[in-house]
Amino acid sequence: xxxxxxxxxCLTALSTLVSAELNLSQPLLSKQxxxxxxxxxxxxxxxxxxxxxxxxxSYPRETINVIIENVDSKPQSEYYLxxxxxxxxxxxxxxxxxxxxxxxxxxxxxVVEYDTESPTEFYLIHLPTPLKPKEQQTISISYSVLSALxxxxxxxxxxxxxxxxxxxxxxxxxxxxxxKQKTKIKFxxxxxxxxxxLPADLNADKKPDPQKQGSTFTYGPYNNIPAGAEELxxxxxxxxxxxTHASLLERDIEVSHWGGNLATEERYWLxxxxxxxKNHFSRVEWQKTSYMNPPTxxxxxxxxxxxxxxxxxxxTDDIGNVSTSRFRPGVREAHLELRPRYPVFGGWKYSFRxxxxxxxxxxxxxxxxxxxYVLKVxxxxxxxxxxxxxxxxxxVRVVLPEGAMNVKFSTTVPVVxxxxxxxKTFMDTLGRTTLSLSAINLVDDFRERELxxxxxxxxxxxxxxxxxxxxxxxxxxxxxxxxxxLDMSIGKKKTA
Amino acid sequence: MAGTEGDQFLKQATGRNTRGMLRVIILxxxxxxxxxxxxxxxxxxxxxxxxxxxxxxxxxxKYLVQNGFYSFWDWFDDxxxxxxxxxxxGTLYPGLMVTSGVIYHLLRFLAxxxxxxxxxxxxxxxxxxxxxxxxxxxxxxxxxxxxAGLLAAAxxxxxxxxxxxxxxxxxxxxxxxxxxxxxxxxxWIKAVKNGSVFWGALTALFxxxxxxxxxGYVFITNLLxxxxxxxxxxxxxxxxLYVSYTSWYALGTLASMQIPFVGFLPxxxxxxxSALGVFxxxxxxxxxxFVRTQLPSKxxxxxxxxxVLIIFLVSFGGLVILTLSGVIxxxxxxxxxxxxxxxxxxHIPIIxxxxxxxxxxxxxxxxxxxxxxxxFPAGVYLCFRSLTDEQxxxxxxxxLASYFAGVMVRLMLTLTPIVCVASAIAFSQILDTxxxxxxxxxxxxxxxTSEPAKVAATAILPDGLRSTRSPLIGVYSxxxxxxxxxxxxxxxxxxxxxxxxxxxxxxxxxxxxxxxxLPDGSQxxxxxxxxxYYWLRQNTPDNAKIMSWWDYGYQIGGMADRPTLVDxxxxxxxxxxxxxxxxxxxxxxxxxxxxxxEVDYVLVVFGGLLGYSxxxxxxxxxxxxxxxxxxxxxxxxxxxxxARGEYRVDDEATLTMKNSLMYKMSYYNYNALxxxxxxxxxxxxxxxxxxxxxxxxxxxAFTSENWIIRIYKVKDLDNFGRDHQSAGAFDKGxxxxxxxxRKGARVLRVE
Lengths: 496, 751
Known about the structure:
The structure holds two protein chains of two kinds. By secondary structure, chain A is mainly beta. Chain A is built from four helices and 32 strands. An eight-stranded mixed sheet of chain A has the order 22-21-25-18-17-28-31-30, with no helix packed on it. Chain A starts with about 30 loop residues before the first strand and ends in an 11-residue tail after the last helix. In chain B, helix 20 (about 370-385) runs antiparallel to helix 21, helix 21 (about 390-405) crosses helix 22 and helix 34 (about 725-730) crosses helix 35. Chain B has 35 helices and eight strands. In chain B, the strands form three sheets. A four-stranded mixed sheet of chain B has the order 3-4-8-7, with helices on both faces. A two-stranded antiparallel sheet of chain B has the order 1-2. In chain B, strands 5-6 form a two-stranded antiparallel ribbon. Chain B is mainly alpha-helical. Residues about 1-5, about 440-450 and about 740-750 of chain B have low confidence and may be disordered. The interface of A and B includes residues 321 and 426 of A. Chain B: This is Oligosaccharyl transferase stt3 subunit.
């Protein structure tokens, strides 16, 4: 929780929970707005930088391993990484680690912004220990960019290959001088029909740029690139898999002490951002080809691995149960295979909800210090597919029992907004304590991250419900008895 | 032994309370059985709204819950009957939706936020429990035997005739209307018996509720006056009748006029005139009764004759004049079809095209009512024996309802309550006679004989001396008792078996979802309807207009949430005929119609691949007939039959048939699934022509997994201003000049 205090106000744009589309053009708001004239102090230089762009999945994953060196006379701890303002709202899962000692944990990062006219915004990385002058440190920055791939051509035949295009700068964006750098691009296969070739004299080795090795391309190395330099290149590669994107995921986790149950429900607003169909969908062609099970850009199934012990799964959408799902409970993991009602081709949408129960005891522990409980649940579950899935917005709601207090949480997922509210539902008098967390631009890499919630739950609170119901019943009986014994007849009484 | 102990227990001082308690428990169990026997579909499938009409009711309920009562009342729905729209708030019976809305908000208030869908799905079973209770009350008013009421409640709870319209998910007006019907009749009987304004007003209140819930309220509107009229004719006029009828009519008519859809009908339409007439008659009779007490009988006779003649002439003449001048609406077509079953087929094909408006087949009575169908006359006969005021009601009700149930399948529903009541009376009479074990046993002990059968036999011998000595009349033989009671028990069990079987097999399919079995015995669900509807909902623009035959209008509105041209509220025959014409005409004729109506997608149901017989080709003749009703020159039913009068889809199908849009849409691209020339239609068992139909003005947009639903997109106008045929020919690479020539020839030869 402490790791991301400055994100907490970032979410005015996200407060509308109902609208399914993320307004990507809207910049994130931040506490720290710098003047337009701001230029990061040139206190670092990048001694060596290797960027790896992984295009295996339906979103690019960037990993920047950089040796930074303090060129200032004083110890420094603030390292800036620039992004274009249109891009930064699509950057997700930004994490920085010490390459040499990843066990030390994730560095504190925050978004800083010039005033709105400025095209550049920064991620500010706080090094945990200030770097002394002339000293070097290797840091590893990783993030993914959502909605960065566009299908080219935008319309394809139903069973033809799909090609995606990715445009980026060959020079890794940096606020500092980079002495030596290169960019590796890993494609899912070697079918790369188009890519930008840079002149060989830019290259430090004077070799053709990029260098090809199977399905890996390398741009660079380049020497002494000044801060802010940019050289746009694009690559186009085959990706005949669905580009699954959830514009919104709502995830409810409900804790029931009485029932010993942990109920999870997830609501997805999915779309396939791949190439749309040139002609309309042809069932004949689909049925003919589906015997061979060829690669396709349509989303056919969503395998959803659940934790072992998951029970009573359901898979519904706005008009009821979707009968095309299979559930295989297992010892290691329970496997829920969801099949949408129809194959989701590029440009098509599919929204649904899925939920299941689980035994609470494997998620909840009572602390020895009395009435405190610790709940450990995954922050994000969701489908696990080789091509991955990206989430523009994720709202996680942990519904604790009525009367839970002192709610604290911690998670390694970058959370942009938190709130603790009351959620009134079945037989509640006050409402259940609810912890709402919002995150943006997540990808399926985050699906094993944990969310730990601690709260106090006095035993008296557990008896609120039975007592209220009992009192209510008695009140009804009493009223009925009183009304029944009233004599409201007009005229003379029969017994008199 | 336990039985006698129980009997002793019941005879004790607390007997009355105990029996009352027992009765309450039994009634609760009956209600429980009634509810649970309706849950087959929820358990087998899911909590889902069934059929067609319930989808509209569900949609309207959601609108009510979301937008509040007043905007529901004023609801103008622009998403149906495009481009006309529908004043939905003023053209529906709001009782059902308001009931669900009230339950929804009540549960919310009690901190039970139940989903509105579940309330709607379970409303009908819940009300069937109440119906069982109301039947108990009604029957208890009829006879003194307490067992009759319980039997009637049990019959009502599980009889298939009622279950057919009240399974979980069958969220239709009948779901609450049958309860209201029975309960209103109970209150009416109560009012007639007591002659109290209170019960009369309650009758009016529930009558008003009934009016708000179902068009079948007209049945009450005519049955109660008929009852009153028959009582008067039998010379049973009494102040009790006067008080109860007038208070019901005055208040009930006012209440019914509060419903916008009914409005001034109660004083303007012919269906309501009998109630008004009897109201007037009662005033006259009441006045005459008053005069009789004041005048000598000679003068009274003269006065009476004159009075009766004048009043009859004046009122009848007035009625005729008002009807002719149009102040009173003439009888509607649906009403005529009640008297002449052939009427609708000739004059209003749209009414005849609904399967539930067909005359009932004989087996349906046995299917829906089982053993009650032969107990029913016995019960009516028993009513004739004493023929009190309320038993006259049973007689009238059974005669009328029997007739209506024979005319229209769906009116079986109004027959069912009275069948339950009458057969319960008959059955309880049997049981009361044969189960009464106490009296003869005591006698036997007095006689001190060890052979009860013999004693019982001697006791009833027609020996004058003996019979005067011990005037015991009845059946006292254990053998005969056992036989009859045993047989009755077997019948009852068979009845329960039959009801459960029918419910489970015939009435528990949502019809949106089809179930089948895989070779390994596991259930396989064919969910094509929802697949296609959900595709429409997710992947078409929010205001894309869908054209389909009207059967699917409500489902498209409810599940796909898209505007439709026509739906199951068949108020505009011309509009439906327009769709029928578009479906049954050639593409060149249909395309302008579709453009004029801004149609974006056309949806057809095709069962040929799966053998699903309820598809559009089988309904096609109704489309043709309805279109022919409006455009007799352009659409002719005869053209769809071969020279030998056969309705065919294969090679020998007529040209008109093969060129019709419906035929083309159903079979477009279907050949590609089969080896050349092997395409087979599994519903009609026909081998299709080797070359499939070609479409030029519309294109296939989506076909569901089993081809049940096929959706076509209507093409936009051609960019170069050509017609779509020549544009298509150009795309195929034909030369322009020859293309037009060849196109004409090809159409003639192939299609």
